[in-house]
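Budget justification aside, the reviewers requested a transparent look at the raw inputs and outputs of the sequence design task funded under Objective 1. We therefore reproduce one unedited record. The lines immediately below are the structure tokens for a 509-residue chain.
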């Protein structure tokens, strides 16, 4: 029997403010010692017999266990691990909840991070997800298993789209019915579109999620790594009376009770432990943003993480890609699984390129942890994992639409410039551009992506539509430009990522 250090065991007030929830945590029939159990507010730990007891007012209506390294929940609901239980009795009544785990070897593991599936049963997007995304992800999961890694999946929020829950009859149950086609255990982060848009406060807005998916925030350990899943979207009180489009009104913020839970959760984790923080909205600003944090209380979140040697943050929400570093934190904000809200599903656009608004292909991240070290890459759906860039000969780019692409207007002067979109670019990366064997001067630039322009807003506006947010291109700083000396010849772009892996792509002019 493996045992764990018995941490501070909660003491109870003599005056009971709620019901007592108690039970056991066992693995393969043996009691588990020192395992954290929480109601989302308090955290208690199992004793020497694997027992716990907690006073709770059952505000969130559930209780969950933070599974330790070397173990996982013994059962799943679909492909969602059973690390949580709904509470079923009134707040002032006692209740018994037991958890069963099983021992696993998680010393070498991998996970796939998927941001913003955002399926809403419009156009052909369900078909795109089921028949394009899911097979691609499952093939990647199979390759990870072949490599001897034990993979799981982290969904980074916005599984469905709140304003279409009722009108399109496609809410969380329907989304997870399709997500269950993914051949791995799935841990979920809650996004703003996963809240009930008819609820008048944050707690009630998360009730459907808690009933069907589980806790809005929680933690678990894998192979000596501490994972924290946060809900960093606080729903504004009386939101339905403020919403103009039937969607939740929210702030990018970790609400205060959750911050207190996070403080307690991290207290038990040693500073040398690798930490992965997964949440929907990003914490760190993208390059060029005039802001220190992207969360209202971002400084408070960072303060709780400050004791750790290194923290990897993964997030979504923006439907673009960028990476940023600050102090001990490295954040990767991932482009969306749905690209630009499944515009490739709009068959009337004649569009087969599912891209985010700054040119990142729809896709997902692949992380592995081996020999105590992380590495990761972003895989575009339908692309080989080696594809990390797109190269343009700007002399051959001509987009006749002054409203969205004046800089790419036909008839402009030919300049022999090469534009490269490196969507995974971030701290520690390097981009080199060669004309033949000659290294060219490379400049990092703020640009739009020509392929996105030609695939989405141009055909969309050609049908007489007004330019809207989901179609509007955005600038990004993961573009690089160089000027060649002549009109013809071979261009080679070499990209080195932060793990020292190199990628090359050629362009013949």
């Amino acid at each position: 029997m493996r045992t764990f250090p018995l941490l501070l065991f909660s003491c109870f007030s003599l005056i009971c403010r709620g019901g007592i929830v108690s039970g056991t945590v066992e693995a393969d029939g043996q009691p588990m010692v020192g395992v954290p159990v929480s109601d989302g507010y308090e955290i208690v730990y199992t004793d020497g017999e694997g027992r716990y007891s907690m006073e709770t007012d059952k505000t969130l209506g559930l209780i969950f266990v933070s599974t330790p390294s070397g173990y996982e929940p013994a059962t799943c609901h679909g492909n969602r691990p059973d690390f949580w239980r709904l509470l079923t009795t009134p707040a002032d009544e006692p209740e018994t909840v037991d958890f069963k785990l099983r021992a696993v070897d998680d010393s070498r593991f991998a996970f796939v991070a998927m941001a913003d599936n955002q399926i809403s049963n419009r156009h052909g997007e369900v078909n795109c997800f089921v028949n394009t995304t899911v097979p691609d992800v499952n093939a990647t999961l199979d390759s990870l298993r072949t490599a001897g890694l034990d993979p799981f999946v982290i969904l980074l929020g916005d599984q469905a789209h709140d304003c279409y829950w009722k009108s399109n009859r496609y809410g969380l149950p329907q989304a997870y019915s399709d997500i269950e086609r993914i051949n791995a255990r799935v841990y979920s982060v809650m996004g703003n579109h996963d809240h009930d848009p008819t609820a008048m406060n944050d707690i009630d807005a998360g009730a459907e999620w808690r009933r069907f998916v589980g806790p809005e925030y929680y933690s678990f350990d894998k192979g000596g790594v501490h994972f924290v899943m946060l809900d960093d979207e606080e729903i504004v009180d009386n939101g339905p009376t403020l919403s103009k489009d039937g969607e939740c009104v929210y702030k990018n913020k970790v609400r205060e009770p959750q911050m207190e839970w996070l403080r307690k959760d991290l207290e038990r984790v040693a500073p040398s432990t690798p930490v992965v923080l997964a949440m929907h909205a990003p914490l760190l600003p993208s390059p060029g943003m005039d802001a220190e944090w992207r969360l209202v209380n971002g400084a408070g979140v960072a303060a709780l993480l400050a004791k750790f040697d290194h923290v990897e943050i993964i997030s979504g929400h923006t439907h673009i890609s960028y990476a940023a570093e600050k102090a001990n934190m490295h954040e990767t904000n991932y482009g969306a699984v749905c690209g630009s809200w499944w515009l490739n599903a709009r068959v009337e656009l004649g569009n087969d390129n599912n891209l985010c608004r700054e040119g990142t292909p729809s896709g997902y991240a692949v992380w592995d942890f081996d020999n105590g070290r992380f590495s990761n890459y972003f895989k575009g759906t339908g692309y080989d994992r080696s594809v990390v860039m797109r190269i343009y000969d700007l002399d051959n780019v001509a987009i006749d639409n002054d409203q969205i692409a004046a800089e790419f207007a036909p008839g402009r002067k030919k300049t022999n410039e090469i534009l490269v979109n490196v969507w995974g670019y971030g701290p520690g990366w390097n981009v080199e551009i060669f004309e033949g064997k000659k290294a060219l001067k490379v400049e990092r630039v703020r640009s739009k992506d020509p392929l996105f322009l030609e695939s989405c807003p141009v055909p969309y506006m050609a049908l007489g539509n007004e330019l809207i947010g989901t179609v509007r291109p955005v600038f990004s700083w993961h573009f690089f430009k160089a000027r060649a000396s002549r009109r013809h010849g071979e261009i080679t772009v070499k990209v080195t990522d932060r793990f020292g892996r190199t990628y090359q792509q050629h362009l013949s002019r």
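The first strand starts at residue 19 and ends at 27. Residues 125-146 form the longest helix (22 residues). Computational costs for records of this kind are itemized in the attached budget.
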